[in-house]
Write a structure and sequence with these properties.
Two copies of one chain form a homodimer. Chain A is of the alpha+beta class. Chain A has two domains: 94 residues, Pseudouridine synthase I, catalytic domain, N-terminal subdomain (Alpha-Beta Plaits); 142 residues, Alpha-Beta Plaits. In chain A, 22% of the residues lie in helices and 32% in strands. Chain A is globular, with a radius of gyration of 19 Å. The relative contact order of chain A is 0.19.
């Protein structure tokens, strides 16, 4: 049996998330079904982690056991020919037989896109959130810096997470203005960590946007880290701005 | 009667083009219908020019005669609240009573987005075309430079255009690499002219991509300009890569 690894990009708009579930089509299920249809082999695709409904990916990593002898380059072509256009296979590779995309992940990077202007440009409406009042990007970056390092992030989590430990290490967390037009500016938050709790990035963003709007003090981040209390933090930012950019392994 | 001007952005994917027509919903019709529903006034929206089915806009300019006294800022808000999210009104302004978005346009700028890589990133699949072989961007820019200046562009036109003169002036035409990732690069063609014939930008792009692929000589551009013969040129590039970026007036 081969263990096949994949790097997968998807537009999460039409999906109930990565993971197979009852209430709608998932990315995992769509790929598994395509493989079964093409190769008459039932596979189980392990992802590096779940992404929620509406969350996107540029670099989800997944693996499966597979007995069919098709070469990896042909498998990639076959999948991209038969998958819907909102799911694309960027890479297919032969993985070590014990490769596990979730347990062996060392770093994950997410991006969160914000359009800061009065009107959302139509072409990014599924991939960014609209903030129509001024944002202080420097202030957001000062607050984001408080998140870096190893902390107990139990305040930054929605119920439903199943992690035993809530300590995570954040290597990088910062905002960057990536585009300016007459209509506004695009601001992208990029965060890299050794792992993330359920909704952790979206709670970070919801909080940092309140700080950038002047509605909340920078120090609330520190208070949340110290106390573990969710009440020091802002709302969970909408799913559609979030994208799993990459997963790194040793 | 007021003459109201607007700057409009749209995702053309779901529309049969800007202009009202039989075979599907148009952007113009959608806005006119929304105004009629909101203000019980039948209006006729004149655009700066047609865009074909699937073509996008960031800066379409349109005007209408309108008798309702609503202030322009409130009109913008009302329209954006009731239009579908793939059409956004960026600006509403009081225009001179003889303002005509088409006849008075001095310059138009279009962009054309190309993803140069083996697989199309899902988030830009409606806004770019995929070119999966190497492109020589320098060579494309050398060829594009031949297009600048005043020329008879009759070779660069699809039948169906209604222009009497086929002489146009191109102020700028160039490619720029706007993004590089492990998966490929985004290349954007930007062209500014005093006007464009039917499908002119898409024929330019289809030709320049063949030149960048080594399938066609740079000099074919010159031969097409000199002879007026469409046979020296490449195919009309797909609609979805094209976007009307802006229209300038005196």
């Amino acid at each position: 049996m081969r263990r096949i690894g994949m790097i997968i990009a998807y537009d999460g708009t039409a999906y109930a998330g990565w993971q197979k579930q009852e209430n709608g089509p998932s990315v995992q299920q769509t790929i598994e079904d395509t493989i079964e249809r093409l190769f008459h082999e039932t596979v189980s695709l392990m992802g590096s982690g779940r992404t929620d409904a509406g969350v996107h990916a540029q670099g989800q990593v997944a693996a499966m056991d597979f007995s069919h002898p098709i070469p990896t380059d042909k498998l990639k072509l076959a999948l991209n020919s038969h998958l819907p256009e909102d799911i694309r296979i960027y890479q297919v590779f032969e993985a070590a037989e014990d490769f596990h995309p979730r347990f062996q992940a060392k770093k994950k990077t997410y991006t969160y896109r914000i359009w800061n202007g009065s009107v959302m440009p139509p072409s990014i409406r599924q991939y960014a959130v609209l903030i129509d009042h001024p944002l202080d990007v420097d202030r957001m970056n000062e607050a984001a810096a408080l998140l870096t390092g190893e902390h107990d992030f139990r305040a930054f989590r929605s119920s439903g997470g199943m992690n035993l430990s809530t300590v995570r290490k954040i290597f990088q967390a910062s905002f960057e203005v990536t585009e300016r037009t007459e209509q506004g500016q695009e601001i992208v938050f990029t965060v890299t960590g050794n792992g993330f709790l359920y909704n952790m990035v979206r709670i970070m963003v919801g909080t940092l946007l309140e700080i950038g709007s002047g509605k909340r003090e920078k120090d609330d981040i520190q208070k949340a880290l110290d106390s573990g209390e969710r009440t020091w933090l802002g709302p969970t930012a909408p799913a559609k701005g979030l994208c799993l950019l990459s997963v790194e392994y040793e």
